Every structure is written in C-alpha cells, then in structure tokens.
UniProtKB/TrEMBL annotation:
Enzyme class (EC, first level): oxidoreductase
Gene name for this UniProt entry: hpxO
Reaction catalyzed: urate + NADH + O2 + H(+) = 5-hydroxyisourate + NAD(+) + H2O
Requisite cofactors: FAD
Species lineage: Bacteria, Pseudomonadati, Pseudomonadota, Gammaproteobacteria, Enterobacterales
Descriptive protein name: FAD-dependent urate hydroxylase
C-alpha cells in the first residue's frame, strides 16, 4: 500500500510517521520550496502530547517544550491578578502535561524523525483523479504521482478539499487580529513557569514559556479585516491598541522584534461532515480549519494522523472502508473542537461586550476548577483518553 501525502506541515508529517510505523509506504509532497512554519509557537495539550509519544518522539518533545505549572489572568490596566491556579489537576486527570513549543523546532523535529531528504518540495497539487489503479495527483509543475490513496494535509486553503466536497467552502473571518512571536524570558513581565494572560476591552495579551528561556507571546485585538498594517507599523500599532495597559504589557511591546513578529487575521471554516471521497481523505486544517482560541488546531491534526493510521492498519475490508471509518471517528470530534473554539473566541474578543464583561467578573472568583474541567473535557475526547 502506498499513500500520497499532500503537505509537510504538522498534519502531513504526523500522518507520514504514523503510516510508516505500520509499514505503509509513504510519499510526501510539499508545495513550498522551504518550510516556514506559520506562527511562532504552538501549545501542545496532553491529547497532542500523547499522539507524539505514540509516534516515538516522547523525549524529543520534552526537550523542546516549555514547563507550565500555573495559569493566571490579570486585569488589563492595573495588572492585578484576577485568578491564578495550578495546572496540576489537569496533568493528574489527563496523565500528561502540556508543552508549548516553537513551531519551527516542532517542524524540524517531525521532519528529522521522518527524513527531510524524503520530502519532495516545490510540489503544489493542482488536481487529483481516482481510477481502478488507485489515485493520481497532478502537480502545477506538470509532474504527477500515483498511489493507492491520497491524504490531503494541504492546509486551510486546501486545493484538494473542493474535490472531496464537490464545492468550495468559504473561510469565515473570526473578527480579530493576532500578533505572535518569541521573546527572551523576562520575569518582570511574567513568571517563567506560568501561562499568563492580561484581559480587557475584548483584547488579550498572553505569554507561555517555551524551551531555551523564551516566552511565546500573542496579542489579540478585535478589528475589521484588511487594514493597512504590517511589520513596519507593528510596534506603533500595538502601542496604540494597548495604550494604558499595565506595565508588563508595555515592557513586552518594547522588547519584541517586529521583524520576527507575525500579524494574522484569524479565520475558521464552518464544520462539514464529509472528510473522505473514495480513496482521498482530508486531514488537519484541510478538514477542520479552526481559530486558535482553545489551542487545539495542531493537536487535532495529530489525532487525525493517529486515527487514520490505525484505521488503515486494523481494518481489512479495503482502503475505502478504512477511510470511511476514519471519517466516522473524526467528523464529530473535529466539529466539536471548531465550535468550541468559536464560542470561546466570541466570549474572549467581545462579540457581545456584556458577555465578555461578565466573564471578566467571573474570573475574579475563579478557582480554576471550571476552566480546568473544560480543558480536560476537550483533551479527553482524543484517541488516548
């Protein structure tokens, strides 16, 4: 059996590693000539950690991950803590700890585990065709590849998705802009082993520790899409949007490097139930593009990869049957994640400011139990509950 995998991002590489674990031949094709991960870092929650453990990267991940022990919310302007609590109950219930990691380092780990020299770069898929010999992928450079099945891990702008669904589905603007990057760890801004978030006005500023004494940071601001803002105006933009916010936020803005900070307009896609068509399957953002508000985009792709590989390995009624079983196991799960993220997005970013202000008030009496239970419920929906 040979699987053609379109995309060498998190989903594509986890799929390739999972399939080769069972002796399935793989060929990975990546559209760009050089991988440049989108976003500075990613929070890998216990469901994703367990998938990477299963794929044989337990120790490597621990070397890359930041050590988060507590979680805290602070008032935007005073900087006073609204709540602070330990992540120990989440770790105890899920059986793993979360690891924030730099995306470039995670990508390098995955490529190294699979074999960078085995990935064919500069191969952008144009179309796919199924026939009695399997599946053929046609690339924009005029070349083609043939296999027994094709897994589309080609992202939120997937070229294969319209083929599977029979239509093009629009992306939905979530209503806010995110700036993210990495900065040297500074305990005058936030504790070194804490996920720290400042909230107010439907905006937030958040910091997570990653390896090598760095913080992953992000700023969120509800804004219309298409503003004429880029790295040349980045620091001034953030100073304007966060004018009057607490001293640690001002210090963070002063310390970031605009040249390595990303500005992203956040979108998702309405969930859809069909993830496969014959011998072609969608995986990762191609199957369930979500906002980052519950930190499950990358973790969901890791879950997809593990479930897909196990369906192909453990069912003997043919490839099409195995892919339908993958769809049956994943469609409901990923719909739930997309909609949970959307709901959290709306509360956090002031879609209805009365609801958001109520959340701020609730944080002042939050002991951590409600937040952690919600996180555990999400985590436990994965394949290694």
């Amino acid at each position: 059996m040979k699987a053609l995998i379109m995309g060498a991002g998190i989903g594509g590489m986890c799929t390739a590693i999972a399939l080769q674990r069972f002796g399935i031949e793989t060929a990975v094709f990546e559209a760009v000539k050089e991988i440049k991960p989108v976003g500075a870092a990613i929070s890998i929650w216990p469901n994703g950690v367990k998938c990477l453990n299963y794929l044989g990267m337990k120790e490597q991940l621990r070397a890359l991950g930041g050590m988060m022990q507590t979680m805290a919310y602070h008032d935007a302007r005073t900087g006073n803590p609204l709540t602070q609590f330990s992540l120990a109950p989440l770790i105890a219930e899920s059986g793993e700890r979360p690891y924030p990691v730099a995306r470039a380092e995670l990508q390098s780990m995955l490529l190294g585990h699979y074999g960078l020299d085995r990935v064919r770069f500069g191969k952008r898929v144009a179309s796919v065709e199924q026939h009695d010999r399997g599946v053929t992928a046609y690339f924009t450079d005029g070349s083609e590849a043939q296999g027994d099945l094709l897994i589309a891990c080609d992202g939120a702008h997937s070229a294969v998705r319209p083929y599977v669904l029979g239509q093009t589905v629009p992306r939905r603007y979530a209503g806010y802009v995110n700036w993210n990057g990495l900065v040297a760890l500074d305990e005058s801004i936030a504790p070194a082993r804490q996920w720290t978030t400042f909230v107010g006005e439907g905006k937030r500023v958040s910091l997570m520790p990653v390896a090598n004494n760095r913080f992953y940071f992000f700023f969120d601001v509800p804004l219309p899409p298409g503003l004429a803002e880029d790295r040349s105006t980045l620091r001034a933009d953030l100073q304007r949007y966060f004018q009057g916010w607490a001293a640690p936020v001002q210090k963070l803005i002063a310390q970031i490097d605009p040249a390595t900070t990303n500005r992203v307009e956040i979108h998702d896609i309405e969930p859809f139930p069909q993830l496969v068509k014959g011998r072609v399957a969608l995986l990762g953002d191609a199957a369930h593009s979500t906002t980052p508000d519950i930190g499950q985009g990358g973790c969901a792709a890791m879950e997809d990869a593990v479930v897909l590989a196990n369906c192909l390995q453990t069912h003997s009624m043919g490839i099409e049957d195995a892919l339908l079983r993958y769809q049956a196991r994943r469609a409901g799960r990923v719909k739930d994640l997309v909609l949970k993220a959307r709901k959290r997005c709306d509360v956090t970013h002031g879609k209805d400011m009365a609801v958001t202000e109520q959340w701020y008030r609730e944080l002042q009496s939050e002991t951590g139990e409600r937040i952690l239970q919600g996180m555990c419920d999400t985590i436990q929906g994965g394949p290694f509950a």
